[in-house]
């Protein structure tokens, strides 16, 4: 698997972008709202969520900032401030890798679904030993995602 980004949940995405620009010389993709259909922890319920995110440049690895969604999947919780959320990897065989991680004792946290409820685009997994979530991103979305990050779309 190829690590391409590190994701942080932040209280204020614009403030976090400005701080990393000033301290680390990063530039940013546009902040883009993403409307997603997801399932959480194997629940049959499909949720509609809106995610605000931006990616740093240059990379890889990129830094992904996600606006805190209070009480939601991407929430900083009671601690506030930025928190390491996940490590993002490109995955050529998303269903196969998810199955392999489950067989090794990992658990699926959340995944995007299509209109029929089939997993698509990404899956967040908890590794058996803990630590940050692993976000497995289907390589089929790489051109679209990279165009956003690089500002060419």
CATH superfamily: 2,3-Dihydroxybiphenyl 1,2-Dioxygenase, domain 1
How many helices? The count is 3
Shape descriptor: globular
* Widest sheet: strand ordering: 1-5-4-3-7-8-9-6
Helix/strand/pairing class, anyone?
A: alpha+beta
DSSP strand (E) fraction?
A: 35-45%
Low-confidence runs: none
The pLDDT mean sits at: 83
CATH architecture descriptor text: Roll
What is the N-to-C succession of helices and strands? EHEEEEEHEEEH
CATH level-3 fold name: 2,3-Dihydroxybiphenyl 1,2-Dioxygenase, domain 1
Protein name: VOC domain-containing protein
Organism: Pseudonocardia dioxanivorans (strain ATCC 55486 / DSM 44775 / JCM 13855 / CB1190)
Pfam families: Glyoxalase_4
Give a description of the structure:
This is VOC domain-containing protein. The chain has helices at about 15-25, 95-105, 140-150; strands at about 1-10, 25-30, 30-40, 45-55, 60-65, 85-90, 105-115, 120-125, 135-140. β7 (about 105-115) and β8 (about 120-125) form a beta hairpin. It starts with a strand and ends with a helix. The chain has an 8-stranded mixed barrel. It has about 150 residues and is α+β, with helices and mostly antiparallel strands. The chain contains 3 helices and 9 strands; from the N terminus they run βαβββββαβββα.
Outline the fold blueprint:
Layout: E1 2-10, H1 13-24, E2 27-28, E3 32-40, E4 47-57, E5 62-67, E6 83-91, H2 94-103, E7 107-113, E8 119-126, E9 133-138, H3 142-150
Parallel strand pairs: 1-5, 6-9
Antiparallel strand pairs: 1-6, 2-4, 3-4, 3-7, 4-5, 7-8, 8-9
């Amino acid at each position: 698997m190829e690590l391409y980004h590190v994701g942080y949940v932040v209280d204020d995405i614009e403030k976090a972008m400005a701080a990393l620009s000033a301290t680390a010389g990063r530039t940013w993709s546009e902040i883009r709202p993403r409307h997603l259909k997801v399932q959480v922890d194997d629940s049959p319920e499909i949720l509609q969520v809106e995610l605000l995110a931006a990616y740093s440049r240059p990379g890889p690895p990129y830094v992904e900032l996600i606006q805190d969604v209070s009480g939601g999947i991407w929430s900083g919780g009671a601690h506030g401030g930025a928190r390491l959320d996940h490590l993002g990897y490109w995955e050529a065989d998303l269903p196969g890798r998810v199955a392999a991680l489950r067989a090794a004792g990992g658990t699926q946290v959340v995944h995007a679904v299509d209109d029929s409820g089939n997993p698509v685009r990404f899956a967040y997994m908890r590794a058996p030993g803990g630590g940050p979530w692993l976000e497995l991103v289907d390589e089929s979305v790489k051109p679209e995602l990279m165009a956003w990050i690089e500002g060419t779309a």
